[in-house]
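[STRUCTURE TOKENS]
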Amino acid sequence: MIRAMSALIRLVEITDANRDAVVAVRVHPAQERFVASVEKSFVHARENPEAKPWFRAVYAGDVPVGFVMLSWDNVPGPGLHGPYFLWRLLVGAEHQGRGYGSAILDEVVALLRAAGAADLLTSYVPGEGSPEPFYRAFGFVPTGEADEDGEIILRLELGSRP
């Protein structure tokens, strides 16, 4: 677990018991063009098993505050980045600004390091209000590439994080 400001977060497997509460976590409406919903994430995971989707709910205490999904140790190829790719990261609108996003990434980085990963890729949709500043502040840097949808690819060298 990671201390995010005054709350502990934990990554929790999604089950029938917590699925509805996790699906109810939504970003601010102005952010919806930059990040797909939890429900759409589940659809993308089912439709792309070759991406080796790995996802977890993010809880602060007993409350789901976010969601994270990665491609976990996949074989990169057309339309597949990796082997480790941060596919989805969202924090519910009412929980933003409390350090949860960084805490989630800190936890993901620790898990990836334990798995022997050297770096983590992600992407963002360019535009006003995009998550680019958040990712850049965390340490991600542009690779100079864009994906087939025009999303800018970023890389985080896991050794660069304390």
Remarks:
- Residues 29 and 93 are 8 Å apart (CA to CA).
- Confidence is low (pLDDT under 50) at residues 1-7.
- The domain at 2-116 is CATH 3.40.630.30 (Aminopeptidase).
- The chain has one domain: 2-116.
